[in-house]
Amino acid sequence: MTNLNLSSGFVSGATSKGNELSILSFEVANTIVKGSTLMHSLSRRSIRQLNDVVLPSEGVQLLVSTDMDELLSIVADDKRKELQVFTGEVVRFGNQCKDPQWHYLDRFIEKYRREPTPQKQLREEAELMMQQLITLVQYTAELYHELHTLDIIEQDYQHKRLEDGKSNASQKGNGLTILAAELKIQKKIVRNLKKKSLWSRCLDEVMDKLVDIALFLNREIDNIFGNADPDSEKKQSLGGKPRLGPAGLDLHYANIILQIDSIVARSSSMPPNARDMLYQNLPPNIKFSLRSKIQSFHVKEQLTVTEIKAEMEKTLQWLVPVATITAKAHHGFGWVGEWANAGSESNRKSIVSADVIQIETLHHADKQKSEAYILELVLWLNYLVAQSKATSNGGRLRSLLKSPDCSSLDSVDRVNIYQ
């Protein structure tokens, strides 16, 4: 067993037998994936990508902040929260161990993080440990999938046996024999995977690695971002700016942006109910602003459908990727069994090396700025749909100001802002 020898007062030795993880292995695997994702995000390559690509991107600069120090402070805070979740789970597993040396690890980790240790050696050894654990996680994911298959075969076998019990000998056939053979093979597959996966590992054995990884991650975050400052200017500045994530609006706003993009792409053929659904999904304050803004919205000269789309694309080209990443972050696989059931090797690898970080989503986006961009897009979208209809009918575009549909904006139950 690899050991970083970090555990002053924590002695690695023989693990207690009969203390296999068994069903707990799936929960432990999920924690390992969280640790792996965090470790990957702190790699030199990921930090270089953060500084050179993510933070200077239009989405971050226009929606979050243009102050690079503030942005780095936000990322650091996010990483510490991710670490807190990971460490909390490690501590919880430690308290379930028979060996009392793993109990109350939170006190030990907090104390140890302040002691000087060569970080380069820690990184190399921690990465090696994580590779070993991820190999076990991949076998554990396969086990999850094969256990599910075993359950289906067992049900089919029992169902067939009951059927045959009610039939006479001439009607039975060899279906039960085939299922029995399949069941035997599947049980062997499951047995082999249990031996290769976390299922057959002792919790104490896995804890030895998880603790060392948690200690490394604590140090690495401090080395990259500096020590945490609870009274930082960043926290004071964010306090006065409502953000989408803390308000629980990031996924909702992402879906609105993706709806707008879909309608723009199919402006001449999109069913009217799709546009109605978009309006119904708009937040109340955007609807309220729309009532007055739509009356005053105008362009200096009439634009073609292509020109309107090009105008909207100036915002959509940077806003849609942010919305897409936000949806991906919310709908991504978080539980090892889910990506096991996905079945493909590429899916499994993508979870282990997930590179989505919170600051490139809508989580930290300024609520007021986000709503301003959405409102502008909806106004342009109204103009685009009206122009598309006029073009397809061979007629002229009616004035938005005199549009009879605008009067229906006062309706509460159903509103159609489109002509």
From TrEMBL:
It comes from the Eukaryota. This is Protein PSK SIMULATOR 1-like isoform X3. It comes from Nicotiana tabacum (Common tobacco).
